[in-house]
Every structure is written in C-alpha cells, then in structure tokens.
Amino acid sequence: MKQVAVLICGAGPVGLVAGLRLARAGIETLVIDKVSCVNDDFRASTFHPPTLEMLDELGLTQDLIAQGLVSPTWQIRQHESHAKALFDLSVLQGDTRYPFRLQCEQRVLTRLADAKAQTTANLQVRYGVELTGLTQEPNDVTATVNTPTGTETISARYLIAADGARSICRKLTGMTFTGETYPETTILVTTPYRFEDQLPGLSNVNYVWCEQGTFSLLRLPDIWRCSLYSDPNESIERALEPQAIERKLQRIVPRQEPYEIVEIRPYRIHRRLIDDYRAGRVLFAGDAAHLTSPSGGMGMNGGIHDAVNLSDKMIAVINQGAADELFNLYTRQRRPVAQDEILAQSHTNRMRMQRRDPAWRATEMARLQALIANPVSHREHLLKSSMISGLARAAATP
Ligand SMILES: Cc1cc2nc3c(=O)[nH]c(=O)nc-3n(C[C@H](O)[C@H](O)[C@H](O)COP(=O)(O)OP(=O)(O)OC[C@H]3O[C@@H](n4cnc5c(N)ncnc54)[C@H](O)[C@@H]3O)c2cc1C
Which of 64, 158, 242, 326 lies most in the core, judged by the most C-beta atoms within 10 Å? Predict the structure, then answer.
C-alpha cells in the first residue's frame, strides 16, 4: 500500500493549487485524476484580483497574464440602445495589486500548474487513476483506486476531495449537496468574429439584455465566447440546430456572411452547497463543495480560495502540530462565503439577466448607473463582485 501525507482527488484547478501549496511546505502530496492527461477543460474564463494574488505566490500569475487579457472593466448592457452600466476595477487600486479581471481559460492554469507540479519536490500528479472507494480509521484514510495496471490502495493522513461537481468522495462519505438545478440550458458558442469592431464600447466581459432575451459576450485572446439561450417556446434541441445559433448570432451583429463557429457546448447550471466541508479526514474544496451559475465568474475562483484556506490549515496541522479541529474552522470560514457571497451573487446576476420586463430592466439599469456614479458604492460593489469582501469575511471568522 502506498502511503502519503495528503492525497488529493482531482487535478482540476483546485486540486493542483492545493497540491502545489502543500508540497512547497514540505508535505508529501499525491494528486490523482481519472482523466488520462492534464485536464483540458476550458470552462472558466475569468480570474478575479485576489485569485491572481494567490497564484502569484506559486509563480503562476505572470504566465497567466501573458496568455490572457487584462480587463479593467466589465459591463451590463442593453443591446438595442447600447446603454450600459460600466464597472471599472481601477477604483480598487488601493485594495489589490491586480485591479482588473483577467480573461484567460481555465485550461491555461491547469497546464501551467501541472507543469510546475512536475518540477516540485514532494508532489506527484498521477493521471488515469480513479478513486472508487474510501475508508477512514482514527489516524488515516485509505482510498481504493483503479489504475491502468489494476487496483491499488493509497493511505494518507488526510484526503482533499477536489473531484468536482459529481464528487465520488461526497457520495462515499454520504454528504448531502443541497440545492437546485436551474431550468435553462446555456449554449456556449465560440467564434473568432471581432464583435469589438462593431459594438461600440464593449468591455471584455459583457452581460447583455436584448429584446428577445439575454446573451453574454466574453472575450479571450483571439476568440469570443457567446452564451445564448432558447427563445420562448423553442426547445433546446431546436435551439442547438446550426441555423438557430446562426440566427441568434445575426441578432447580435447582422452580417452578410455566416459566422465562423469554433465550438458549441450546451450546459446546465446548478446552485448547490455541501452541508459540511469536512467528513472526518476528508476535506472538500471547489465544485465538490459548491456549485453555482458562472454568471460573475466565481466558481473556480472560490474553489481556489478554498484550496488556499484549507492548505494553510493542513500545513498548520501537519507541520506545526495544530489540533485537527482547525479543519472545523475551514468550514466555518468558507461555507458562509460560498452561501452568502458566491452562490448568492451568482444567483442575483443570473436572475438579473433572465428578467425580460423592459420597465424592470430600465429601472435596474438606472440603479446600477447611479451606484457606479457614487465612488463609495461603486468600490463596495466591486469589492464584493471581485470576491475581496468574501475573503475578508472569512479571515475575520474565528
Ligand atoms: C461554461 C462555464 C464557465 C465557467 N466560467 C467560470 C469563470 O469564468 N470563473 C470561475 O471562477 N468559474 C467558472 N466556471 C466554474 C469552474 O469551471 C469550476 O468552478 C471549476 O472547474 C472547479 O474546479 P475544481 O478543481 O473544483 O473541479 P473540476 O475542474 O471539475 O476538476 C475536478 C477533477 O476531478 C477529477 N475527478 C473526478 N472524479 C474523480 C475520481 N473518482 N477519481 C479521480 N479524479 C476524479 C476530474 O477528472 C477533474 O479533473 C465555469 C463553469 C462553466 C460550466
């Protein structure tokens, strides 16, 4: 049986960040992932300022910036009138070293973190290794894993469950994941078309109301990501047909030629939270603990904040002999932030964009513009939406 101090299930952004931090503190750590090579998911596209600060400690931020778009503003916009509420993160200059959102794909982070892991002492990342069972004893946890060469057991003092939305660790420990699945399917369409040349005053992150509903336009180097939705009375099967997608893109910018489409990906969104971030020697982080709408870009960022909080406590317990009750503080600090900040803000953002009533939209636009016009409320809003106040709240929780 292989023995390590900490076993991490899942080499997504959360598992890799936790692994790098623990290994740098001299803790022997093994990260396993069931996929056969580095996780190439392109899901997340926004990094918030505090996450960039955390990744800086691991020497990853400058490489991310080099492969992303520094985006000082984001906006909520009315398509037909071009009216907008423009949030400007440069007002956070005194609050963070990185007063901007970085538009960069999640897979850039997993690739960089995986490459760093290959040269980090005390850290091993094994792909093609799937956790299928676990048992807990008073002093350790033992995982059963399937590997390309057969079944193995791995024993560790602690297991970090960073195994994503469908977490097997959550199921094996019997944890409940309370919440709901939203009714709509989002259709993520990527195109190299240069919307910025046609739509005046776009930011790199735009949440847009239009007569027929809503869409968002998120820019990445060389590509735009458009989130589209079914029209009223249009089935998702119909909405996924190429002509339906073309029709919706033509509504954004009408053109003679058809749009070049790189990828179409439908996905459902959820709002769920685990009841406790700890099940004995198993600690949950990232999507295994909380799931939220991507509106506002907080899922991965919040998961990385979990990884940093948890790895600090793991270092205190393993290296400095702190009592492992310290892990209860991890739940006390991070769960309310997930509930009241990450899930709540993402839910509000989603609801705002789903509302169709023109009068409600006009009032909301005026409210947001007034909020931005006041430097105090503008900064407060950005501290929340950039996830800075959530971290401050966690740090102040005893
Ligand atoms: C369209 C979309 C856009 C998004 N945009 C943003 C954004 O802009 N900003 C943001 O912050 N978040 C965003 N998110 C959310 C973000 O993608 C997730 O929150 C993030 O991937 C969570 O990271 P994770 O490491 O917890 O889990 P994952 O990235 O899901 O990684 C979990 C890993 O565990 C592995 N695994 C699972 N089961 C096992 C097992 N039994 N054994 C071994 N390994 C296992 C999986 O293979 C996977 O590699 C978006 C999500 C979507 C769908």
Answer: 158
